[in-house]
Amino acid sequence: MKIFKGVSASPGITIGKVFLYLDDNLKVPKYTIDEDKLVSELERFHIAAGKVGDDLKKIQAQASKEEITEESRFLDSHIMMLTDPEFIRQIEENLSFFKKNIEWVLLFTVRQFIRTLRKAGSPYLVERSVDLYDVTRRIHRHLMFHEKISLADISEEVVIATHNLMPSDTVNMNRKMVKAIVMNAGGRTSHTAILARSFEIPAVLGLTNITDEASSGDTIIVDGNSGTVILKPDSEVLTEYQNKSKRWQQHSVQLNKLNRLPAETLDGKRVALSSNIEMPDELELVLQHEADGIGLFRSEFLFLRPSGFSSEDDQYEAYSSVVLGMKDHGGVTIRTLDVGGDKIIPDFDTFQEKNPLLGWRAIRFCLHHKDIFKIQMRALLRASVHGELRIMFPMISCLEELEDALAFLEETKSELRSEGIPFDEKIPIGMMIEVPSAAIISDILAEKVDFFSIGTNDLVQYTVAVDRGNENIAYLYKSFHPGVLRLIKMIIENAHKAGIPVAMCGEMAGDTLATVVLLGLGLDTFSMSSIDLTSVKEIIRSVNLNEAEELARRVMEMSSSGEIDKYVRAWMNERFENISV
Ligand code: PEP
Ligand code: MG
Prior knowledge:
The chain is an alpha/beta fold. The protein folds into three domains: 2-23 and 151-255, Phosphohistidine domain (Glucose Oxidase, domain 1); 36-143, Orthogonal Bundle (Enzyme I, Chain A, domain 2), CATH 1.10.274; 260-575, Phosphoenolpyruvate-binding domains (TIM Barrel), CATH 3.20.20.60. The chain is 48% helix and 13% strand.
């Protein structure tokens, strides 16, 4: 028996048989091409890319027939990549400079792109490098006439163990037969994590070496709740997990029944549970879970595409579709562009900064690039006529910045008025609190906006001075640090004094370990990935407000995150049998 610990990327418990899916490790040859053969070498690329495009469109058509929107979305970005003029231009340039075979040139070009993405350090963009590798491998297979076993051919129930699942592998995958996924690579923001959550199968990622240890046919336990994988379990452990799995299944059925019920404590305190989304087509899951609106729509996808920034009309379409979809379902809070820091726009040279996380990011970037900001602001205001749209500014660190953003908004409104373009005159405006200075002056800022949303992903990073993406110091990144909790308490109190509501849209809002503490501190809205909604709701519906307040009070007297964590864990474990905290 071997036990592995990884990232718990999608909840649930599965016991099954391993299907070892190994990368076919294509060896890419390298040889010189004569000057007069360069044109036909490039032509080989275009033919192979064309075939890959056809393959992908076929897979996409199949996916949309089966209404698998998640995959169609990933495939869109693959297809776009194949025709991306910048990508093609670099291939042509490298081919004529190196005069090597196109297989090698393609790999070289892709690695160039990926190095830029890695330098940027953004988990989101690093995950996009998976797309590039996926498309590259497909083109290589066509160039080298190499075929691969398909996940579509799986005919019995399996747990896939692999190094890194490519998005187009998952589209092909026989979904009915795949009961869980374990991977060497990947984190909570990877494609595989998102897909596993939308398939509602457990996934444990970031296991480093699971493919070295597992063989096809081995018995495997995947506990996506705790991020544990057990290979070839002994009979005692197997029985323990069979019972756990049964309890989890019964529990999931109960959880789904909660979709229809309000997030209300035993003594009637109602809070809102809303969803975070990154793409309009995640709407379906939001509606399925009956979320109280969308608390965070990250608008970055409209700006980070290989084809460049979206036009005003494209943005208007994207925002309108979500606003219309959420009409009478709590509306949507759209965050203005949050690039820079860990979300670098590739090839935007303004970003060569020593400390990008402390640099020219989010609202700072937008207030400088007013042309880009204006387009987004106009699109947002125009879309506001279709329903409940709230605008939210990220990374505000001082009053002047907020005032500038608000003035810019007013200027845009006047422009639209003079052009006779309608918008919601009462559109609510909020700001994220993700910088400690903003938390400390939240009493002043609260006078200027209609709501706050606490972005704990960044607030924790800036409060404890720990880069959220740096694994070496991840042990210091603690949402339960008393310094962080004091800031959260201060923000909530200041907002309530000013009569405005407070949401939280960082990962902490969907972390069941934090639910009761946040409830006790008075948080109004918890905004999270849709899949986490019912677990959080279950907790809220099982406690009284006064016991949550008592827990929060006790916690606020403690001196360290370790002490708080231990105390809250024990408190939660005593009450909730099925929640792994
Ligand atoms: C946050 O910082 O908590 C947040 C929600 O924003 P992002 O994760 O997109 O930086
Ligand atoms: Mg943030």
